[in-house]
Structure formats: structure tokens, C-alpha cells
Specification:
By secondary structure, the chain is α/β, with parallel strands linked by helices. It is built from 19 helices and 18 strands. Helices cover about 40% and strands about 20% of the residues. The longest helix has 24 residues, at about 145-170.
């Protein structure tokens, strides 16, 4: 048996953030990683052709750049930006483009309807006035008392009421209320589909608004040299403070006695004692049902987990392109991210197919041009590119169905960039099962640790409760994207879990904290 102050399960970015914060507090920390590599869904590799670097999962990082917890770690990341943030290509050949230059974005939106440029400026001015307290409130423990009060003071009573309404608006309705043309609403709706929400679902508008406005304010930056730079910086920082990452050490069981987490047993039979806390960067169903076990949990929580909803499956392709991509619309050439394959009605049809469990006949693609954003990703004059689309969640996908959908995806790109196929030197396809094999937390190819739908957010994430990382097992904390505030590379679940562990360990204050949490949980799960 080994012993440390904290055992962290999972070396994804949330687990590494939690481990770093605990190490900063002087704790000894061991991180148990099931695979041979750290980073979870924040990793890079040469998987297409020599000289072409691909981000294996996540790629653009506005939330990481804006995250208070990642900012506090002062990681030595060199951020790079594409000339334009993103462009949404319509089937009729038009493009709605967002640039960090406000006038450029306004000109793009103005082409869709007179006055939409100024309307975009007005929306952005409102965002700029509240972005810092809003991001702090979103990415700190629930309820965000201090940051929430800052936000309310800035909004005022009337503004707060209308802001509350905005939080539940569907993306289509939000765009319709703010703009007259199709371009700006489509930019919002396309951003909303970075989650698993359709343009018609409650709450999708705020996701689209947030991502589009972050793009306008700070861009969607990438780390120079690949996503792996974020992970490597977190690992180096942890190790410099005495922390340790053990690879190929999958957790098998949480060790519990008298209602308290005492450590973790790995699949090899080794027990890792935790004197102060166990922090789990794994999906909620895996933590509660597999590592803890239903018999140690309140029956109401076990029942609630039956209703836990995953986000959809994902199919991703990486390409090595021997030239720059021959886009019909030059607006796409300078965009780091390109949305293509559907107008607003097409996004709704695409989402409806997914909701019905059907493979969309016309996929909507999120397409990334990594060399456009970071010239180190491939040889000069070429492109390291990727695209992903969503599929219904299924237990398995036959190879021929995946191959057929890959053809649909590439045909979609070809329609907007004639000659694309001839420029492809090599490709790598990751089906939903491949994504899960590479990162076990991506269950069934789900990227978000659970749906972004309103019924599974805030105090409803991952199940109805407190919206906090505390679990019914004392000194066991949930630190994955299954916890509030959910998916995205921002480190907030890991940061929240680490802070909760530190508070719990503060003598009489910690005991009072645990008493209050336990009393609330008894009321919730009785």
C-alpha cells in the first residue's frame, strides 16, 4: 500500500488541475491514469502523415484562455490565433464570419440585413460589460454567491430579469429577437451545436451567444505546438511540486470505511491510501456505480442515475492536406474553425434526426484548420485539418455505416471546397468506439460528460442535488465534466473539487462544512 494526502483518479485536464491546486496547498498527490498517456481529451499526435500534427480530441480553447482557474496556474502556453475566428458557410455560398476585429464581423453580418452590423455591435457591447463576472460565475462552485452578486449589480433588477429569460431561450429564438438577417442567428446556432443542443432547445441560445461573444472578444486560440502543450504544462507543474502520475493504473474500487473514502484500489490490486481526499475525474456513472457501488449510495441517487443522459456520439476525421484547402468562399480560408453543411433550418433537421436516433443524411460539420491557426502543425503551404459530426448514441456502430458517413462528411467538404478530396494525402478516422478506447471518459463517443440540456445543468448536474463536487461519501469529490459546470476545457470541475477538498480538511470549519453538506444530502436523497 502507498499513502498520500490525495489520490486523484484520472489525468485528464480536470484531474491535473485538481492535483495542481492540492499540491499548491502543500498536499502530497498521486494521480492514477488508466491509459499510457496523460491529458484525457487534451492530447496531440502524428496520426495522419509525417510532419502533420493533429489534436486528437479538443482543439480550440476559448474557455481555457478565459478560465479563472487555468489562468491562476500561470501555465507557459504560447497562444496562437487564426486570422478569423470562425465562418459559417451556407449551402447557397454565403458566409457569416466572426473575427476578433469587430468592424470585420459587423461587415459580414451587415451583408445579410441592413442594420445587423450595428445590432452585433450592441450585443457585443453588452457582453463586454459583463463578461468577466459572468465567466467567473459560470466557472466557480455553485451557487456563485460572490460572482453572482457582482453580475447582478452590473445588470440591475430589470437587466437581471431579462438576462434570466435569455438563459433559457433557444438559439433560433434568440437570433430572431436580436437580428433581421440569417447570418448572425446562424453564427449563434452553429456555436450552440458545439454542444448536443438543437437550435430549438431551451438554453441553446446562451451557449451560442457565449461562444460567439468569446470569439469576438478573445478569439478561439490554440496552443502553439498542439493541445498536448496544455497537458504537458500541467504535468510538469504538478511534478515540480512533488506530485506523481502513475500510468496504466486504472481504478477498480474506491476504498470506503464508515462512510469515508480512504483510498483507491487499482486493477492490479494495489491500494493507494488517501489521508485527506479522493478526487475523481471520471464520468458520474462510472464513479458512483462502478467505483463506489450502488449498495453504498442512497437509493434515490441510484434511481436518479438511471435518468442520467449522455450527450451524443461523435465521429471525427483528421486529414493531412497537401495544399491549402480550396474553399469556394475566401472567407473560409482564414478561419480557424468552419461550420458547414447546413443553414438554420438544416441545423434543426440535423438535430431532429439525432433526436430520433437516425443517422443524419446531411451531416453538419465542425471543421478545424489547425495550420491556419498555428503554422507549426504542418509544412508550409499545407493544412492539418479535422472535422467532427454527431451521431445517435448506440451500443456499437458497424464499420460499413461509419465508412458511409465518412463519405458523406467528405462530400460535404467537397461541395464547399472543390478539389478537397484530391488534396488529401492521408486520413485518420475515429469512430465513437475509437474515441472511448483512446479516452475511457468519452463514453460511447460523448464529448461533454453528459448532456448540456437544461434539465442536467447547475444543481441538476449530474443528478438533482447541490450542484457541487461533494458526494454522499465523505472526502470523495467528483471532478469530471459530469459535474457543474460541465463540458469544455476550462478546468472548473477540477478546480471546484480541489477547493471543496481543501475546505473539508480545515479542522472544525471542515467538520461544520461536512455536517451542512450531509444534512442537505439527506434532505435531497431521502
Amino acid at each position: 500500500m502507498t499513502a498520500s494526502d490525495a489520490v486523484v483518479i484520472g489525468a485528464g485536464h480536470n484531474g491535473l488541475v485538481a492535483a495542481n491546486l492540492l499540491a499548491d496547498a502543500g498536499w502530497s498527490v498521486v494521480v492514477l491514469e488508466a491509459t499510457a498517456h496523460p491529458g484525457g481529451a487534451v492530447r496531440s499526435g502524428h496520426i495522419t502523415a509525417p510532419g502533420y500534427l493533429s489534436d486528437l480530441f479538443s482543439a480550440f480553447y476559448p474557455l481555457a484562455y478565459a478560465s479563472p482557474v487555468l489562468r491562476s496556474l500561470d501555465l507557459p502556453i504560447e497562444w496562437q490565433h487564426a486570422p478569423a475566428v470562425f465562418a459559417h458557410l451556407l449551402p447557397d455560398g454565403r458566409a457569416a464570419t466572426v473575427s476578433r476585429d469587430l468592424e470585420t464581423t459587423m461587415a459580414s453580418m451587415e451583408r445579410f440585413a441592413p442594420g445587423d452590423g450595428e445590432r452585433w455591435r450592441a450585443v457585443y457591447r453588452e457582453w463586454a460589460a459583463l463578461s468577466r463576472p459572468l465567466m467567473d460565475a459560470l466557472l466557480t462552485p455553485f451557487p456563485p454567491v460572490r460572482d453572482g452578486l457582482r453580475l447582478l449589480r452590473g445588470l440591475g433588477t430589470a437587466g437581471a430579469l431579462r438576462f434570466g429569460r435569455r438563459l433559457v431561450l433557444p438559439a433560433r429564438q434568440l437570433g430572431r429577437e436580436w437580428f433581421r438577417g440569417e447570418g448572425a442567428p446562424l453564427a449563434f446556432a452553429g456555436c450552440a451545436l458545439h454542444t448536443d443542443l438543437s437550435p430549438e432547445q431551451a438554453g441553446s441560445g446562451v451557449y451560442g451567444w457565449l461562444l460567439a461573444m468569446l470569439g469576438q472578444e478573445i478569439g478561439w486560440p490554440v496552443p502553439r505546438g498542439g493541445a498536448q502543450q496544455i497537458t504537458d504544462a500541467l504535468v510538469r507543474r504538478l511534478e515540480s511540486r512533488g506530485g506523481q502520475v502513475l500510468y496504466k493504473s486504472p481504478a477498480e474500487r474506491i476504498l470506503i470505511a464508515h462512510g469515508r473514502a480512504l483510498g483507491v484500489r487499482t486493477a492490479g490490486g494495489t491500494d493507494h491510501r488517501a489521508r485527506r481526499a479522493v478526487v475523481a475525474d471520471v464520468p458520474a456513472p462510472a464513479l458512483f456505480l462502478d467505483l463506489v457501488g450502488a449498495r453504498r449510495l442512497p437509493s434515490r441517487l441510484v434511481e436518479d442515475l438511471e435518468h442520467f443522459r449522455w450527450d451524443g456520439a461523435t465521429l471525427k476525421i483528421d486529414w493531412a492536406i497537401g495544399s491549402k484547402i480550396p474553399w469556394r468562399d475566401p472567407a473560409a480560408a482564414g478561419a480557424g474553425t468552419v461550420h458547414l453543411g447546413a443553414d438554420l433550418d438544416g441545423l434543426t433537421r440535423y438535430s431532429t434526426h439525432l433526436a430520433l436516433g437516425e443517422t443524419p443524411p446531411q451531416p453538419f460539420l465542425l471543421f478545424g484548420q489547425m495550420t491556419t491557426a498555428d503554422p507549426t502543425r504542418s509544412p508550409a503551404g499545407t493544412e492539418s485539418a479535422w472535422a467532427y459530426t454527431h451521431l445517435p448514441r448506440r451500443s456499437s456502430w458497424p464499420a460499413d455505416e461509419i465508412a458511409a458517413h465518412v463519405e458523406r462528411m467528405e462530400a460535404t467538404v467537397e461541395r464547399h471546397a472543390p478539389g478537397f478530396g484530391k488534396a488529401v494525402l492521408a486520413r485518420s478516422v475515429m469512430a465513437p468506439a475509437d474515441l472511448e478506447d483512446a479516452d475511457p471518459s468519452l463514453s460511447g463517443g460523448a464529448l461533454g460528460g453528459g448532456t448540456s440540456a437544461a434539465f442536467q445543468q447547475l444543481f441538476l448536474r449530474p443528478t438533482p442535488g447541490l450542484g457541487r463536487p461533494d458526494t454522499p461519501v465523505d472526502r470523495l469529490f467528483l471532478a469530471s465534466s459530469s459535474a457543474h459546470p460541465g463540458g469544455g476545457v476550462h478546468g472548473a470541475p477540477g478546480g471546484n473539487a480541489a477547493r471543496a477538498a481543501l475546505v473539508r480538511d480545515r479542522g472544525l470549519t471542515g467538520q461544520a462544512y461536512r455536517t451542512a453538506i450531509a444534512a442537505a444530502q439527506r434532505a435531497i436523497y431521502r
